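Running low. Any example?
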Amino acid sequence: MRGVGQHGIRRILCVFPRYTSSFGTFEHAYPLTGGVQAFMPPQGLLLIAAYLPADWKVRFIDENIRFATDEDFEWAEAVFVSGMHIQRQQMNDICRRAHAFNLSVALGGPSVSACPDYYPSFDYLHVGELGDATDELIERLARDPSRPAAQVVLKTASRLDMDKFPIPAYELADIKHYFLGSIQYSSGCPYQCEFCDIPGLYGRNPRLKTPEQITRELDKLLECGISGSVYFVDDNFIGNRKAALELLPHLIEWQKKTGYVLRFSCEATLNIAKRPEILSQMREAFFATIFCGIETPDPVALKAMHKDHNMMVPIMEAIRTLNDYGMEVVSGIILGLDTDKPETGQHLLEFIDHSRIPLLTINLLQALPKTPLWDRLKRENRLIDDDGRDSNVDFRLPYDHVVATWRDCMGRAYEPEKLMERYEYQIRETYPKRIQPRTPQQRSWRNIKLGLTMLRNIFWKVGVRGDYRRVFWKFALRRLARGEIEYLISSVLVAHHLIMFARSASRGKTNASYYSLKLRETAETAVSAEHKAVATVPTLRADRSSGQRVTPV
């Protein structure tokens, strides 16, 4: 379904803000690949681009790949921007650059929907999801694309049903340059974890696309050049368990039809371990990785943050169950909770050793607007408005101790030898339990060429030039001797990023909270030399508003 413009063809420039160097966007892995420059294609802007009237001209730019140029702004009649709280500075910078060409700029997405007052400079604020506010914005621009005399705030009162969503305009993005593909099946989550803003923004009753929509989107992603993995960016894949069970047979049939050329990953609550009927079909659909917001192994802390559902199955048992279905677990971990003690860091490291989870997003607690945590800390006068800090929370423990604990945990958890030991465990105990399709599509010349390119880059950049090459070759030679080339590539791509990023973290060169507004140097991984001069405004680490769910290929 598309919006309708009644008064003429318009030229719309959609600009996605730049990320900064972060744990969850894997920029240190990009040089090891065959041309990756950015993390995932942004669903929101590509959806809006597809929804615009069919005769409108649309240009999409992801500033993680290239910056919008003067020529782009000169071409446009209006600019659309979207992003999260931690992209606030970049979004305001795009607005400033567009206004230099006297263009009207419309802002949508989770940040402005939660905090419209953050963005006084934009001409149009789109608050809420796709719906009647979107139609009104299109109609206004169709009548007159010039800047309004005062800011216009459009609030969605009637959301468009997700089964009427168009396929995101993947054809506008250079899909082959993304680390992962992305797809959204549902919106909303039934749980009310204290720190999470998803129920406040998108509701507790998950809304859904149809299985047919999802398979059409997967077809489009393949057509546009995606390879490797596709991440279901739903806030909780089993937010509606009945719907998940209805979707999975369609995914299984799609995989059989296309030759299992893609692996799937998603995020779900840990109580998915109690659902063997779902896990068995996820295995058949080739779900290889699942992000679970474990947050903490401390049951007292889980109860305090209203995440009791993580205790429906003992955490270690749940992890083993998921591993038994061939799914590697990725975990979110939070430090700085009110229940933390001086020894919490050491207990976390012990949990990492026992769980054998390779990838954990260890993050300092940050209070997001429109969350129960924000409301509670505001009542307790414990919100701190200081962009020079790594968190806006007045912790129970001394601030310096909490930050030091985070740095220590990052440094020790991702020591090369320890990390490779955890991958050894996954290769031995988890990966063999996946289905093992061997199809002509997987053995295509394109895939073989890509694999050889990545092997060459890994051997040179890690095995020859890397400073942990002894650990690498011990791991790599074992893979080569056993013919585990795919495991070698997938493990090292992620491990190299984790090792490099963790070193920066332990030296205090990255934010301890990935939501922090503390300014850092902008990463340069995807910016060509002629554009580096444009990146003069420090940018912020980009996340999904509910927490960046990082999932390896």
Summary: The first strand starts at residue 11 and ends at 16. The first helix runs from residue 43 to 51. The chain is about 40% helix and 15% strand.
